[in-house]
Amino acid sequence: MAVAFxxxxxxxxxxxxxxxxxxxFNDMDRMNNRIINNLIYYQSNYxxxxxxxxxxxxxxxxxxxxxxxxxxxxxxxxPKDLLIxxxxxxxxxxxxxVAQSHKPQLAKIKRQYPLLVPVAVLGSAVLVVHALASIxxxxxxxxxxxxxxxxxxxxxxxxxxxKFANTVELFKEDVSPMTIILSKICNTEExxxxxxxxxxxx
Length: 202
Fold this sequence. Notes:
InterPro entries: Prenylated_rab_accept_PRA1 (IPR004895). By secondary structure, this protein is mainly α. The protein is built from ten helices and no strands. The two termini are 27 Å apart.
């Protein structure tokens, strides 16, 4: 069974002439059906959307770092950064204290190299702060595009082309990547062919 990407839908179909409505939370079956079929029909557009937003977040973070580099020391005066740094330092000191109580070798090293411990603790705290910032940026770049995709899929009203394309999808020999993903997540392969055909027109 071959895997094939569907064509990219026009901007007119995807956004400009699209009709949107609020998600039908009172009819979850209908809303889930809309989301699944929109994800399949617009999957190529959604992939491009995710890539563009992810790149924009990365570029934004890079530009902000370049702009803020001259004010590197001023960043540490910001209350949020100061709080994160203090928490990271406290956690690092706590971890070191616990490790020292269980590992006598660490206490011996501390006595032999008194400057090594504060340098190591501060270095670890800096690495923790840097890692937290990187994780937050990654989560923002990962969650933001997914939220945009799900918002569009949940609110975009399906047109005749959408419904027809999803019906044809049921009888094609090749499958799309989104169909494979949804079949693993939502068990969309369950149910009779007739039920799936009926749902594709809801």
